[in-house]
Amino acid sequence: MNASKIVKDTHTPLKKFAYATTVTCSTQASTYGKCIAANYTDVRKDMCKDEFAKFAECLRTTVS
Amino acid sequence: MSLSRLARISPLTRRFASHSASSPPPSFNTVGPYQVFDRNAKRMQKERAALRNGGEQSRLVDYVRDEVADRMMERFLDIKRNFNTIIDLGSGPGHFSKLLEPDKAKKSIMIDSSPATLHRDPADEFEVEIERLGGDEENLLQMIPPDSQEAVVSCLSLHWVNDLPGALVQIKEALQPDGLFLGAMFGGDTLFELRTALQLAEVEREGGISPHISPMTDTRDVSNLLGRAGFTLLTVDIDEVKVGYPSIWELMEDLGHMGERNAVVGRRPLIHRDTLAAAAAIYKELHGNEDGTIPATFQIIYMIGWKPAPSQPKPLDRGTGKVNLKDVLD
């Protein structure tokens, strides 16, 4: 079973944000995700702070 | 500290102790089941989901329930018995009852706590006679007299019941001797990907976790629960439905439209944006498929139990065997 493909529906702020996290900033998201996945059995607060900062920066510039 | 002063303080502290404003606070003076789910919030979520776009939005996300109802019907058809009336407990809009054929069951009584969900689909979509009864699954015996039913089925609603042992006892009580209970519920590893992604994101971003996915009934516990409720001739099996989604956002949106939003008592009303973005990234890296989609696992526990009756086959007493196993095996 597969739900429908990602549609570029940017009507609501949440949809816009969702699009940014999955499509526009996918590279930064992947870097952050890999950082967590590399050490997911021992996650601490701010373990991947730098990776997330880049991801968040991309989101901020895309959404605003 | 005097007693009167204590009495003055305690109501205040109780107020801080209560988890949710929308459900009645747990009573500290009576012995009762522990409240895990906010039943009132759950009913409201289902109402809202079923009313959106005149029910269209809710019909779009029927895919999981329809699939499970279909698999449950296979088990129902394996039972070589025909019924006059069955009870569909926690029926939703009638995913299971819609599949009933008149020669197998003549009438279905659908019970659900959310009226909008219960009345979402018109009667002409059913092949058998139906009756819709609004009421709480946790209080079955208030609607149905004991020893009155031939069969009770429940398709994907028991995972929101606080007192599962109590609900099963009520189902057994409502059944006639030799009556059938057939149920399907989410349990085990259901939505473990979403659970872990949110937990990892919360720990890394905020330094703590809070409940976002319900605690699930373990598969191993279900046969114990059925046995404890007094059912015999138990059959329990598990099955998985895996659904692919483009991303965590579509998954969470669909869960909302299904009326399956978080209803754990003491839940946080919202998740921080950063945490959600982090969870989206983690979900994809940790669990994602090769084609870029993400999987969501729904694990379903099917259970069959019968109310005891003298006519049922029973195991022989110990030591009554006439054939020596050694002779058979040699």
UniProtKB/TrEMBL annotation, chain A:
InterPro entries: NDUFAF8. GO terms for biological process: mitochondrial respiratory chain complex I assembly. One of its GO terms (cellular component) is mitochondrion. This is IMS import disulfide relay-system CHCH-CHCH-like Cx9C domain-containing protein. It comes from Macrolepiota fuliginosa MF-IS2.
UniProtKB/TrEMBL annotation, chain B:
Keywords: Methyltransferase, Transferase. GO terms for molecular function: methyltransferase activity. GO terms for biological process: methylation; mitochondrial respiratory chain complex I assembly. GO terms for cellular component: mitochondrion. It comes from the Eukaryota. It holds the Pfam family Methyltransf_23. The keyword Methyltransferase applies. InterPro entries: Malonyl-ACP_OMT (IPR050602), SAM-dependent_MTases_sf (IPR029063). This is S-adenosyl-L-methionine-dependent methyltransferase. It comes from Macrolepiota fuliginosa MF-IS2.
